[in-house]
Amino acid sequence: MTKSELIAHLAGANPHLRQPDVELIVSTIFEEITAALARGDRVELRGFGAFSIKARDPRTGRNPRTGETVEVSAKSVPYFKPGKELRERINKGATPPARRAPARATA
Predict the structure, then answer these.
(1) Is there a domain that residue 95 lies in?
(2) What 8-state DSSP symbol labels residue 42?
């Protein structure tokens, strides 16, 4: 689901709100989560999950095209840990993806 699809869905589910108002609400929520992470804060949404920042140490990488070694600097990356309720709702009634049988050799 894209951001515009989310806004359209929420606007349709809440006819008392105008679409521009829903768009402002969704954008404000995303901006506040982004700003909190940029400050180094953790954002927890009960029943949904928690957003945090993880630090990655500097390392030596490899350019896949040339095979040349490249120094990759330290950086921070966003991390999301789903909450228990979200995991349960996703797995409730969910069927695992079908597995393909291995190809058999024919003689």
Answers:
(1) no
(2) -
